[in-house]
């Protein structure tokens, strides 16, 4: 059925319109939901490394980081299924299932009699994060259409990682004043209940928005995406996103290295900071600075990528992360670590929403959900890779050696983007008078 430009009637009678302004209420609700998703991670980050040492007596770094590996591996797998299922069954059912899985996580952490319970909780947390975060990303891209992807991803990721920072800070405060359990994890229990209620009762399905965009889709003026047509198989989507398509695959490797840094920081930074005798609440502040600058910075960088383009922002962000990690590796004071943590957050803010915007630029609307899922498989595998790498290197050569290795990998990743990725934002590459 035809409709005015940019609109189509939905099955429920509401007109479907692409754009942030036209979908502001639902978009804002999804921003709030994703903040709750991020808060589920923040409840753990300051507390679990300390819990491992003080209550469970874990001293080997590799064994201590098993909870990060469990989280990263299951989140990576859940991302793939979130993309596939959201294209097949719709976005909202996947979101609701993800929140149902979240409910037992804080309870397991509160009652855990052994470290195995903590690992089990992080398996569930990884499933929750993969299903819910991937789905909110896909839904926001659906709603805004092609013109404001960078801004949309900046707002999405700012909400999620801002909540990681705030909850990490709150959890550190609660742990310092009321003990490591149960107080910090009561935050997560409230987030899970609220997220499930909002998603089940108020969030609306957005798959018809993607169908409307697909019906109006026009390829790039330079013909670069002509081979990325609507009817690619899932195997072809996996291959292009992982290896063959230069922009998609460059984004995938940069995402993996970016989250490798986060996985390393999650398990290793609290222990490194503790070597200088910092108190728990000081460690909480340092750990919160990284995602706080990351989260707030994305409010700026997402929109900037819509104006300036994607490639150079990603390259600069990876090199900035490399510089920050090098400073962390040599520092031994609160002030210098704080400055480096903020620099690391700034570099991550330049990269994080921009990589997701690249996927939205290149992937056809008909299979964009699956492409987002594959990209997030690679990106979130970085949690597990970073934790394993940090644990092994720290056991063999010390905490600082692991940070130096992450710095070298970040610099290499930035150079790969600089040499292999092309500019994907059509406003920067195509005739402005030609529709996409």
UniProtKB/TrEMBL annotation:
The keyword Cell membrane applies. It is found in: Cell membrane. This is MFS transporter. Its main location: membrane. It comes from Pseudonocardia asaccharolytica DSM 44247 = NBRC 16224. It is a multi-pass membrane protein. It holds the Pfam family MFS_1. Keywords: Cell membrane, Membrane, Transmembrane, Transmembrane helix, Transport. The chain crosses the membrane at residues 20-41, 61-82, 94-111, 117-138, 158-179, 185-203, 256-277, 283-301, 313-331, 337-360, 381-397, 403-422. It comes from the Bacteria. GO terms for molecular function: transmembrane transporter activity. GO terms for cellular component: plasma membrane. Residues 14-425 form the Major facilitator superfamily (MFS) profile domain. InterPro entries: MFS, MFS_dom, MFS_trans_sf, MFS_Transporters, Sugar_transporter_CS.
